Amino acid sequence: MKIILTGATGFIGEHVLSFARLHPAITSILVLSRRNLPMMHPKVKVIIQKDFLNYSDDILEACTGAEACIWSLGVARSLSPEDNRRINLDYTLAAAETFAGVLGSKLKDGRKFRFVYLSGMMTERDQTKKNLWFMAEARLIRGEVENRLIELQGQLPEQLASYVVRPGGVLATNSFFPSLLEPLARAITVDDLAAKMLDTAINGHRTHIIELDVLRDEGKTLKKRLLKEKKSPSN
């Protein structure tokens, strides 16, 4: 299976990339990035993409055959409202619309292009709530992205299946934070999150939105299975 990945130089994206390289179902990984990656791997091809609002014919040709995109590109730090909206909303929707319209239309046998969007636990989809007390702008923008992805899927029901993952706090793999306290802290390890995001790109999910508890519980199982397969003598 061929997939597209963005945000591969970020904390979460780099772990998705690592798991994708290990996964036996993944044969090709196209990384869309503003800069090259320091690592080399036979499954990975880096495509330098300077403008995430527009995709050239050459880039779309390179993406032909891809069946899913894991979108982990975004910014959490404070930017101007214009930049925040452009990076977190406009980039995401431009990719979803282009990939679903161009790549999704080429898939056969009833397959749909899967778009896995990295959102957040406190996302607010009700755009009338302007006076949120915590990270209002970021939460509303993510909520608008989620709403627009649902709308796009309704417009292209035969070509697009979109999924939204909503993690809480994301912990490093070797964090000293006790795993038993993760549910109380509304947290998930980055490996568990990456494993579930990758599986969603490969197999889809039973719901459009995947909340933290499901991400954590299923991610742990998927991670263990993948790492066990890696250690198997037959591999």
Placed side by side, the strands forming the largest sheet appear as 3-2-1-4-5-6-9
Rounded to the nearest angstrom, the distance between the terminal CA atoms is 18 Å
What's the count of strands? Answer: 9
Contiguous runs where pLDDT drops below 50 for at least 5 residues: none
* Structural class assignment: alpha/beta
DSSP strand content? 15-25%
Largest sheet, in brief, is: 7 strands, parallel
- What is the CA-based Rg, rounded? 17 Å
Q: Tell me, what's the shape? A: globular
The quaternary organization reads as single chain
How would you state the average pLDDT, rounded? 90
Number of helices: 7
H/E element order = EHEEHEHEHEEHEHEH
Helix fraction, binned, reads 40-55%
Which labels suit this protein?
seven-stranded parallel sheet, 235 residues, 9 strands, 7 helices, two-stranded parallel ribbon, single chain, alpha/beta, globular
Describe this structure in words.
The two termini are 18 Å apart. The strands form 2 sheets. A 7-stranded parallel sheet has the order 3-2-1-4-5-6-9, sandwiched between helices. The chain has a two-stranded parallel ribbon with strand order 7-8. The radius of gyration is 17 Å and the shape is globular. The chain contains 7 helices and 9 strands, in the order βαββαβαβαββαβαβα. It has 235 residues and is of the alpha/beta class. Helices cover 43% and strands 19% of the residues.
